[in-house]
Amino acid sequence: MLYAYISDVVLVRSMKFCPNCGIELKFQQAKFCPECGTLLSSNESQKADSPNSKIYEELTIPVAEINVYDLGKKLEDVVERIYKSKGYATQRRQRIEGESGTKSEIDIVAKRGNKIIAIECKNYSFAVGIDKVRDFSEKLRDLHLEGVFIALSGLTRDAEQFAESRHIETIDSAGN
Question: Which of 93, 97, 89 is nearest to 72 (CA)?
Answer without folding.
Answer: 93
